[in-house]
Amino acid sequence: MTAPLCLIAAGGTGGHMFPAQALSEELLKRGWRVKLSTDERGARYAGAFPAAVPREIVASATTARGGALAKLGVPFRIASGVLAARRAMKADRPAVVVGFGGYPTIPAMSAALTLGIPRMIHEANGVMGRVNRAFATRVDLVACGIWPTDLPKGAKGIYTGNPIRAAVEAYVGAPYQAPRADTPLHVLVIGGSQGARVLSKVVPEAIAGLPPEICARLSLSHQARAEDADEVSATYRAARIAADVQPFFADVPERLAACQLVISRSGASSVADIAAIGRPSILIPFAAATGDHQTANSRALAEAGAAVVLPESVLDVESLRRDIRAILSDEARATQMASRALSLGRPDAATRLADLVVELNR
Ligand SMILES: CC(=O)N[C@H]1[C@@H](OP(=O)(O)OP(=O)(O)OC[C@H]2O[C@@H](n3ccc(=O)[nH]c3=O)[C@H](O)[C@@H]2O)O[C@H](CO)[C@@H](O)[C@@H]1O
Fold it and tell me: Is 13 annotated as a binding residue?
């Protein structure tokens, strides 16, 4: 008997592709076959997917740029994408189809709907994305990365959490070295898969103005976009603070485990990683995120006292410096924030997601 096939459809951003990858890995471990349906942008993130996962590239119909004529063609391109997905599904016969959100999932989710194939979606954020919302009541269930989330009436939501990658899992439960009066202090600054300009503008200045007894013990790992890196490095250098500035840290899990404080955007996977390893954080939600979902993503950590959330509207150098200083100078508070974060971690999210896929195949 051939192993059951799960078709995973994921849109073109890292935010959609990371959780899709985690589910693929878990299903392969369980002896399933997995196929990925994505667009050209998503394919750039697919390099980290297991080699055993074949890819089907769908046309980026709805993201096509151009004038009115090009836009007029969008419904036709979606329709032809759906027909192509139906043909592929009739040949592949997936047992279950899982959508992770984004426009490139429209063909696969529509085809699964019209063919009556068991299907679910995973929503990583505390506010549903547009495509996931459109399908939420037309799937068997919605696996939710953040809870509670704003499900439309009639949708069946199940809290799974957001899957973390194996490299993060390796540091779950790693002991937290709380900041003390004489210990080295390591601060990690991350802005999501693309980096975040606002963190490069405000964080180095806030850090450089900390009292000398803190600066002398500080070292930074600061993810900065290539175009901001020189300025970020120069500010730390002028304040004689050791700083490793890179456009992307391949070893974020290790740096997270080693830090006393993380300053971060509140993208779904970043929040999941911070909670899983259990570190105090200052979260700065991306104000322009659809439906302000990064604020929703940060809520549970904020309400539990695991994170301080600074909305961009009130973010300034002084307030950020005050918060950084308060956490790095208070061993008891930092320790409590770390353990509260850990209590919200869902290191078993990929397992839970895979369990749901298996149940849908019964
Ligand atoms: C700008 C934007 O719209 N971002 C969205 C995008 O997230 P985006 O892809 O920006 O960010 P996420 O926080 O979801 O994921 C970032 C991941 O990259 C890792 N990392 C980060 C920096 C680094 O140097 N190295 C590294 O490995 C983090 O640990 C994390 O695992 O999709 C998410 C899921 O839909 C949304 O919640 C975010 O709002």
Answer: yes
More confident residue, 67 or 325: 325
Distance CA 319, CA 168 (A): 30
Supply the pTM of this predicted model.
0.93
CATH architecture for the domain at 169-344: 3-Layer(aba) Sandwich (3.40)
CA dist 245 and 247 (Å) reads 7
ipTM, 2 dp: 0.99
Q: How far apart are CA 39 and CA 31, in angstroms?
A: 26
- In 3D, which of 341, 163, 160, 332 has the Cα closest to residue 256? 341
Flag whether 130 is marked binding: no
**CB distance 351 to ligand 1 below 6 Å:** no
Answer whether 266 contacts ligand 1 (Cβ < 6 A): no
Q: Is 223 in the pocket of ligand 1 (CB under 6 A)?
A: yes
pLDDT (0 to 100) of residue 75: 83
- The atom of ligand 1 lying closest to the CA of 297 is 37
Specify the CATH number of the domain 5-163+347-361.
3.40.50.2000
Q: Is 162 annotated as a binding residue?
A: no
Torsion of CA 74, 79, 80, 86, to 10 degrees: 150
